[in-house]
Each structure stands twice: as structure tokens, then as C-alpha cells.
Amino acid sequence: MRTRGTLRLATRGSDLARRQATLVQEALEDRRYEVELVTVETKGDQIRDELIHQLGKTGAFVRELDERVLEGEVDGAIHSMKDMPTDQPDELVTAAVPERGRPGDVLVTPDGATLGELPDGATVGTSSLRRRAQLLSERPDLEVEPLRGNVDTRLEKLLAPGMQAEHQKRSEADKERKANTGDDDFEPEYDRTVEEWFDDLSELEKEALGREVETEYDAIVLAEAGLERSGLARSVDYRQLSPTTFVPAPGQGALAVTAVDGETARELQSLIDHPRSRVETAVERTVLAELGGGCIAPIGVYAVLQGEYVHASVTVFDRDGEESVTASRDLPVDRHVEAARAFAADLADRGAAALIEAASEDDAEPEREEQPEGK
Asked: Less Cβ crowding at N or C end of the chain, within 10 Å?
């Protein structure tokens, strides 16, 4: 088949990052372009023991990809938008925002429980200041603990205690079965042997069996788009957290392709840009930039295009979810960026900027949003 050109696009090397990059690749290939994905290991990938929320202040998961673009080694770079710093080099533009995935978060539990059904004092793992604050705002009794790793690693950490306990029970039942061989009155507790049970497990469950348990989580919170794109959504039980009440991170669920301002950037925009997604994420990131939150702040911003207006919802918390500034506003779509700036200024005057500054200066250790993608 005749092609219209070859594009080299940088991506991080984690499974989820590659899956997301493949979505962009396939969209361009559908338009008869050849696409080469170039894997780049970033500082954030290399330094796994440093506090991720501190790395986030320098865009450790983003800037090295963009440097390859500026140096001319690649034509563009593919990012998770919620991980991008709000400041960009002058030469770079967000060339394309493909159609956004699901923007909200999900609560993942071993049994499909809702947030309200978790037991008193339950331990919930999360990777962001925002999620921590939102959880504690809803359930002050929860123990919110840091959770590191890619999506599959986090899920394995959640499932490990239950899977290992079940394996132990089945192993003991097997021993009892063997000890009572020949006893016609003996009724085994399980119909299958532990080996037969193991063979029917998913790969995720098998990996969880071998994982060392440091913290026993009753639930974890992840971005729904990341869970779906990882291919693991069908392997676990989860409940959606409404984005209108559990407001997601700015740009969550969206991808962005950066490129040097010029012909290639314009070409990418014409090919795969999704205007609605661009408008909505522009509002979210403008509010974030004006409030000075970077990509690590305890702030949720969710925008939905509704006819001539963009309905924007914002929640800003202190680190423990005890104080908050919450507001929503309909912004005219024909001047959505300007209106988003004015909205953010009003929020700042109401105390949002002070909450962000105080939370960002905290020396505590929860991770930033991006890490689930290895992200």
C-alpha cells in the first residue's frame, strides 16, 4: 500500500506507554503514514527510589522525550497529558490531542466493593496527593498509603494477600486429602487440587502469588484510562468514581503529541487532533497553570464541552482533605482559555492557591499521578 511519509515518534518504554503510543501509531497508519516508535528511557524511569512527586516538578517523565524532538532526532513525542508540565519550550507545541479516553478514576478491590462499603480503617493505596485528599475528604477513617509501580505491579500488590491466603488454604486441604486417601467418608473441602486451581488463574493472579507483601491494601485507586489501556480492566473488580464528584487530574485520560512548531505539527493536528478533547483539556490545563499547581498538586479539574459552553468543575484540597475550595462554572467556548484564566483567578482569591502551595511544600511521600504508566 502506498504511504504518505514516515514519522518517528518518541515514547517511554513501559508497557502502558507503548500501548498508548500504539494508539497514536494506528491512527496515523489508518491515514497511510508509516510510524516508527522510538523508545526513550527518562530520568523518572531510571530513579525509582527518589520521591516521584519531587521528580514531577522538573517534568522528569516528559522533558527528555521533548529534548529528542528539539534536537531533531524524532518528529514528535507522545505523552500522557496529565504528566506534562504546564510550561513548554517556546519552540514546541502540542501538535495533536487525540480523542480522549475515560477521564475518571476507579476504585479497585478484590471483591468489587464500593468506597462506602470498605471497612472502617481500610487501607487504600494511591499514587497522588489529589487522590489522597479526595479519599480522606470522603472517608476520614481510611489509611491512605503510597503505592508505587506500573499498573500491573499495583494490581498484583492489591491481590497478593488474598491470593496467597487462598493458596495456603488449598495447599493444606490437599495435604488433608492425601492423608485421608482411601477413607470413603472423607469429603474434601475443594473439588480441585491446588495445581488444578493454579492452572486456571490469570497471569496477573499468578504473578500476585509470588509477590512479597509489604502493605496489605483493601483497595487502590487508578486512572480508568490507564487500567483499560493496560489490558487489565477485565482481570479485576472495580467501581468507577464519578468525575463530577471525584474530580480527576487535569488532562487525565488524554494523550498529547508534541512537535516543533511548523509543518509537521500542523500536519499532525490535521490528521489526528480531536477538537472537543483539545478544548476540554485546554480549559483544565489553563486552570492548573494559573493556580501554579504543576502536575503534582491536590487539584482536580474536569471540563465538558456542552454546546456553546464548557462546563468546568474544580476541587482544590489541602493534603489531608480537611480543607477545600470547590466551584464550577460555564465558560464560553469561543473564549474558553481566557475564561478559564479568569475562573482560576477567582479560585486563587478564594484560597485555592494557598492550599496548593501548602500541600506542595509538604515533605510527605505520596507519588505523583504519572507513575501508574511506568507508566
From this structure: N
Closest CA to 370 of 151, 157, 88: 151
* Composition of the chain by helix, strand, coil, percent to 5: 40, 20, 40
**For residue 347, pLDDT beyond 70:** yes
* Strands, E assignment, the chain: 6-11, 34-39, 76-80, 92-96, 105-109, 123-126, 143-146, 219-223, 237-241, 255-260, 299-306, 309-317, 324-332
Q: At the top level of CATH, which class does the domain 6-103+248-367 belong to?
A: alpha beta
Q: How far apart are CA 335 and CA 333, in angstroms?
A: 5
- Residue limits of CATH 3.40.190.10 in the chain: 6-103+248-367, 105-241
**Other Cβ atoms closer than 10 A to 31:** 11
Does domain 105-241 fall into CATH 3.40.50.1820?
no
| Least confident residue range of 174-188, 195-209, 276-290 | 174-188
pTM of the model: 0.88
Which of 232, 224, 186 minimizes the C-alpha distance to 208?
A: 232
Instruction: Name residue 220's amino acid.
Output: I
